[in-house]
Amino acid sequence: MFSLRTPLRRTILNSAGAIPKRHITVFGYTQAKALIFSEYGQPKDSRLHSHSISPAHGDEITVRFLAAPINPADINQIEGLYPSKPIFTTALGTPAPHAVPGNEGAVQVLSVGSSVTDFTPGDMAIMRHTAFGTWRTHATARSSNLLKIPKSPSVITPLQAATLSVNPCTAYRMLKDFTPLQPGGWFVQNAANSGVGRAALQFGRIWGLKSVNVVRHREGIEELKRELIELGGGGEGGAVVLTDQELADPEVQKGVVDRMGGKGAMLGLNSVGGKACIDLCKLLDTGGHLVTYGAMSKKPLTLGASLLIFKDLHFHGFWVSRWSDQHPAEKEAMLEEISRYISSGELKDVPMETTVWKRDTKEEELKAAIERSTQGFGGKKQIFVFEDE
Amino acid sequence: MFSLRTPLRRTILNSAGAIPKRHITVFGYTQAKALIFSEYGQPKDSRLHSHSISPAHGDEITVRFLAAPINPADINQIEGLYPSKPIFTTALGTPAPHAVPGNEGAVQVLSVGSSVTDFTPGDMAIMRHTAFGTWRTHATARSSNLLKIPKSPSVITPLQAATLSVNPCTAYRMLKDFTPLQPGGWFVQNAANSGVGRAALQFGRIWGLKSVNVVRHREGIEELKRELIELGGGGEGGAVVLTDQELADPEVQKGVVDRMGGKGAMLGLNSVGGKACIDLCKLLDTGGHLVTYGAMSKKPLTLGASLLIFKDLHFHGFWVSRWSDQHPAEKEAMLEEISRYISSGELKDVPMETTVWKRDTKEEELKAAIERSTQGFGGKKQIFVFEDE
């Protein structure tokens, strides 16, 4: 019900295969637009900028964007709070250096320089690293910036490709890399309705894991619970969903631990921090591991020493950008596997709200989408989809 | 200068070999005294209790205590704040159940029951597990309670034996078990003047590791710095000592990181918590591990998510009691190794202040020693030494 099954999506899907007509000058320059910002600050201070892209030569690849999501990390990056810094440059023809926001995205190759052998026009690709700048219609890239999405055996849409490398990868690695979970084993997580949370819930189902999933109390909570339980394989299969308010009750904590066999889980995934994190720790068994990948509450983890010394909990963090840079080969294999889950229907999209970015789309419409992305973490994922009419 | 080189110590050392005259009734009962408490509360509410111990029969072993330290965990145990609970029993002839405080100690075997084959009178032993109750002159034990201290190849004194199983073992395991340190590698620690801290500093020297050691600012700080640097093998050898106040200065932090080669250490040992712990984290390299084994500041660890996510720090705890229960064979091998370091003079004692516990020692004198142990953590370790005149 939440996934994007609209005519728009089919348009995008088709457009990844056929190269559309381009707005090109008589000298071969591609007309492009990008959101840009000149210094760290608020997303609302970014502006829409028009520029030209020279024809690809040598190792250059001209790409057009198909889809680019707005992730919390993108906002932090604009604010200057993200360790992966954007590149400020005058290459887009601005008098002072500017950067393009956005870290994740799917592109279609339009043309390649004479020395490019691994990409051909029509290929779909995603960003290999963070900080490329993806909130733009077109860009000049190099092979090292791009990771090709194979056309087979998996077929995934540009929207799926554009949201593949951050959230599902984060969930995948956190479930695999910190403590071995056997089929039938439990993990617990908060922010279960987030992109990472939904991916973790579904990987759990696919791999035979059971999960306790905490979400913030909200309107329509019962419907959300039903939806998440279904994503996790049903309540019988071992997907428990409860609200942060429910989990704050020690009786409920005890009931959940009983449901897990009386000992708690060996793995917890935390994207909230603050008290929500401490409540999550109460669901962990002695010797368990808590992995933090976000801080939606903007509150630190406050850990009594006894959680470390006597309960023997281990606290780690996970940052998919670092992992990706350090494990390029493993990343490709993982993306291949995740793509198979997507194309087989085993891994469902997160709820998304699209903003169409066309040649005449106004700056205000784009910035309104960014603004919506910062309105709490219960909403749908905001994503730009590009139409090159 | 701080270690106990007094006639008293030689008395104790000698007394571990020869069995002294005992106060025994005509029926073979040993006259004993113990500090006892009937409910969790303050150490000052404990009292000195006289009782008799029946002759050892079957698998029983009658021991007399040689030395028993007062550790912070003992105080927490009396307060009811320690997870390893003492045994409340009427076995000592009290009308209501009482427990004996104290977890660490060295004993001499006085007599054994007919089925005991692994201990003989005169053997020196230490407690195998916590919560035996060591602030007492005599006790009935079983083989499973005791770990024999071999008479060779190492010769260690009862005071050394009585303080072997908590602090040096904690330091040893934390340096070995969390991240591999190569010779020449650095670790950092706070509470460097504590029993664990001094042991870590010296193991570092023995194993070729370099260390940054943080102590609280105090009177006589320069003398303490010199002493700790010498324990660590000298400033040239790579032992840096600085105060918590000095470390709070970002310029000093940078200088220390530069001294470590510009990247920081991969291992930190924390027994303080609060801000001191965050300052220590600034000396850790990306991907480093911080192990918490105490909370002298009584303040929790407050960790911004970026320390976990972007700096990739890993936070663990260490509790020697759990480790010892889970690794009995490794523990014996480690004690053997540490005993060799002690008898060779490579590992020096912590500064100790002894309280002699004789037949006529008053309850007030014993409780004054306990009180001194709670006066901050810059002082000497308090330890009971038993004289059976």
TrEMBL record, chains A, B:
Q: Record's GO cellular component, any one?
A: mitochondrion
Broad EC category:
oxidoreductase
Q: Which reaction does it catalyse?
A: a 2,3-saturated acyl-[ACP] + NADP(+) = a (2E)-enoyl-[ACP] + NADPH + H(+)
What are the subcellular locations of this protein?
A: Mitochondrion
Q: Does the keyword field hold Methyltransferase?
A: no
Keyword Transmembrane among record annotations? no
Q: Which UniProt keywords apply?
A: Fatty acid biosynthesis, Fatty acid metabolism, Lipid biosynthesis, Lipid metabolism, Mitochondrion, NADP, Oxidoreductase, Transit peptide
A GO BP annotation: fatty acid biosynthetic process
Q: What is its EC number?
A: 1.3.1.104
UniProt domain Enoyl reductase (ER): residue ranges: 41-386
Record-level Gene Ontology MF annotations:
enoyl-[acyl-carrier-protein] reductase (NADPH) activity
Q: Which Gene3D superfamilies match?
A: Medium-chain alcohol dehydrogenases, catalytic domain, NAD(P)-binding Rossmann-like Domain
Q: Which SUPFAM superfamilies match?
A: GroES-like, NAD(P)-binding Rossmann-fold domains
What is stated as this protein's family in its record? Belongs to the zinc-containing alcohol dehydrogenase family. Quinone oxidoreductase subfamily.
Quote the protein name from its UniProt record.
enoyl-[acyl-carrier-protein] reductase
Q: Which organism is it from?
A: Tuber melanosporum (strain Mel28)
